[in-house]
TrEMBL record:
UniProt protein name: Lipocalin family protein
DNA damage recorded as keyword: no
Domain Lipocalin-like as annotated: residue spans: 40-135
First and last residue of the signal peptide: 1-19
Keyword Membrane: no
Origin superkingdom: Bacteria
Species whose genome carries this gene: Hymenobacter lapidiphilus
InterPro entries given in the database record: Lipocalin-like (IPR024311)
Length: 155
């Protein structure tokens, strides 16, 4: 009887120690790159402010055939721009592939230009959650400051 109780106690302690160890370890936090690569992303808001002019809702002026386009950020640092269900031109390819990256502290998103161009666009990551990506870009055009704000929704 004592032998059985001792074995049972050791078994309970062993199971308990494994359970408590797994609770003590925090899961590895997901990186911003992993967050982007985990879902497809569609632009759902796009505004531009030029100089002292009012903010312009560019998304409202976007053609319906462009509103269903979506981005796939892949783990290998390529991204696919998919034209969605409706292409604006039947001669356009369904997908275009380019590259992307995030800086070390996760504040800047780099998107390479499409179609083999060697230039890139840098965007400030203003917000990134599992469901939302909001990026911004400030630049000067014709001597005036332009501020672009783009929101993507994951699906």
């Amino acid at each position: 009887m004592k032998k059985y109780s001792l074995l049972a106690a050791v078994a309970l302690l062993t199971v308990g120690s494994f359970a408590s160890c797994s609770k003590d370890k925090d899961p590895t936090p997901i990186t911003k790159s992993e967050q982007l690569a985990a879902r497809n992303w569609r632009i759902t808001a796009f505004t531009v402010k030029q100089g002292n002019n009012p903010i312009v809702d560019e998304f409202a002026r976007t053609a319906p055939c462009d509103k269903d386009d979506f981005y796939q950020f892949k783990a290998d640092k390529t991204f696919v721009l998919d034209e969605g269900a409706t292409r604006c031109s039947p001669n356009s390819p369904q997908t275009n592939v380019s590259g992307w990256d995030i800086n070390a502290d996760g504040t800047i998103l780099l998107l390479l230009e499409m179609k083999g161009a060697t230039s890139a666009e840098l965007y400030e990551i203003k917000e990134l959650t599992n469901d939302k990506l909001r990026i911004g870009q400030t630049f000067t055009e014709d001597g005036e400051s332009l501020i672009a704000d783009i929101t993507f929704t994951a699906f």
